[in-house]
Design brief:
317 residues; alpha/beta; eight-stranded mixed β-sheet; 9 helices; 20% strand
């Protein structure tokens, strides 16, 4: 097995067709088919279901595809980083993030990264949690900060903290007349605004699943694309909205913590499985340092924190 065979297999898996894959690789189809056959013979398993149109991967083929993609990406990164060092170029660290993390610790973390590693060019890419998993595997980003749990076996995840949810309420309405925590049951038969509308699964699904687990049925559900729109609609008295505690960004709304230990949204740090790059432990350590400083945005009442020694070497999901 060699790098060329891995690239051949990835091309076929992506194209789901030998002819198109051969055209993409600029080779003839017979040698491409032969290399895939040799690969299957060496592994002792079938990777492709050739009698289907388009071609489909077997279970073994899907596993091999995910791992092969990681190896190719790591190989490309190896070439790129070596070239950067040899040419004395700045190293690039690409960070994926969901928009709501900008209201919490991400800006402070990026500042710390730039202070500690001035030779590194840090790029920020706004992506949903689901898009981050794809971007990690393709090599588009190096790490991600999201809110959706995933069972993707090729992505390692560390929960940095569990952020409590709050209910955004328009002032002047009955629920805004009382301060303090509020039960999820108060959302029963209420108009609810959720975000983002797409792509799914997303934070919207997390909220809807939480309500469904408690047998809470809103009278109406309005899906919007982003949190700013959702909060604007709350201000217009079009409904209520559950948001992470750090996203209390509008001063013309009332906010009440949800009185339920399950009503939280995790901040999840993700990277490629078995990635031992320097920035993994560096980011974990800087996050631990940030938490120790207890900055103004880190409301202790609104967050559940991991165990004290979780930072470097912490057990991942």
């Amino acid at each position: 097995m060699d790098i060329r065979q891995l690239k051949y297999f990835i091309a076929v898996a992506n194209a789901r067709n030998f002819t198109r894959a051969a055209e993409h690789l600029h080779i003839a189809q017979p040698p491409l088919s032969r290399q895939i056959q040799l690969l299957e013979e060496e592994l002792g398993v079938q990777l492709l279901l050739r009698n289907s149109r388009p071609l489909r991967l077997t279970d073994a083929g899907r596993t091999f595809y995910e791992q092969a993609l990681q190896l190719i990406n790591r190989f490309d990164q190896l070439k790129s980083s070596t070239r950067q060092v040899g040419l004395q170029q700045r190293q690039t660290l690409s960070i994926g993030f969901v928009g709501s993390t900008l209201y919490g610790g991400l800006p402070m973390l990026v500042r710390k990264l730039r202070q500690h590693y001035p030779e590194v060019d840090i790029q920020l890419v706004e992506l949903t949690s689901t898009q981050q998993f794809i971007a990690l595997k393709s090599g588009r980003i190096d790490v991600g900060f999201g809110r959706i749990r995933s069972k993707d076996s090729t992505v390692a995840r560390t929960i940095l903290r569990e952020e409590r949810l709050v209910l955004a309420i328009p002032p002047g309405t009955p629920l805004a007349q009382t301060q303090g925590a509020i039960s999820l049951k108060e959302l029963h038969r209420q108009k609810l605004i959720v975000y983002p509308k797409e792509p799914r699964p997303s934070f919207a699904d997390h909220v809807l699943s939480l309500l469904n687990d408690h047998s809470i049925r809103p009278s109406e559900i309005h899906e919007v694309r982003e949190i700013q729109t959702a909060l604007g609609l709350v201000a217009a008295e079009s409904g209520l909205c559950l948001i992470p505690a750090s996203a209390r960004i509008r001063s013309d709304l009332c906010y009440r913590l949800i009185d339920d230990p399950q009503a939280t949204s995790p901040i999840i740090f993700s990277h490629r499985l078995n990635d031992n790059a320097w920035y993994i432990d560096a980011i974990k350590q800087l996050v631990a340092d940030m938490y120790a400083e207890r900055p103004a945005w880190l409301d202790v009442e609104s967050n559940f924190f991991p165990t004290p020694n979780w930072a470097v070497g912490a057990k991942e999901e």
